[in-house]
Amino acid sequence: MKLEVLEKDRFYHVYNKGINATNIFSNNDNKRYFLKQLKLYLKNQISIYAYCLMDNHFHLVIKINSEPDIVTQSFSNFFNSYAKAYNKHIGRTGSLFEKHFKRIRLENEEYLKNLIIYVHMNPKHHLDMDFKEFVFSSYQTILLEKETKIERKTVLDIFGGKDNFIFCHNERNDKLTEKYTFE
C-alpha cells in the first residue's frame, strides 16, 4: 500500500494496529500513556478531531498544522517511544505496530463528519459495546465541558451543534443495531 503524503492544513485519518493482530494496549494505563505521549510529541503540530483506542488498534482524525516532514518524524518518534515503553512494561521485544502508520487524506467535510462517527462507533463494531460509555474515545470528551486538546467547538460546528452531533451518532448506532438484529 502506497502511503499518503501528509500535507499541511489537510485532514487525515491516521490509524494502525498491532503487528500480527497483537494488542497494543493491555490496560487503561497504557491507553492513558499513549494519549499523554501523543500530546507530548505532536502538540501544536496537529489538531485532533476524534480518536478511539481499542486493545489492538487505534484511530485518529487529525489536521496537520506544521510542516509534513516534521509531523511524520514526530509521529515516528511518538510510536517508537510508546512501543519501547509498552514492550518494557509487558516484557516483550520487537515491533509493536504494523510497519508504517496508515493515513488517508479526507477530501471533504461530509467525509470528515462520517469518519468522526465511524471512529466513535468502533467499540460497537469490535466489542458490541455502547459507544457512549466507552472511555477511550473522544465521544464523551466532545460532549463534556472539561478542558481538552480535542477540537470540540469545531467538531460541534461541523455537526451543526451538540444536539445534531448526538442525533447523527444515535442514528448510525440504530442502523448498526438493525443490521445485526435477527428475528
Automatic annotation (TrEMBL):
Look up and give the organism this protein is from.
Flavobacterium ponti
Query: Sorted alphabetically, which SMART domains does this protein's record hold?
Result: Y1_Tnp
Q: Which SUPFAM superfamilies match?
A: Transposase IS200-like
The record's listing under InterPro entries reads: Transposase_17, Transposase_17_sf
- What is the designated name of this protein? Transposase
The residue ranges of the Transposase IS200-like domain are 7-122
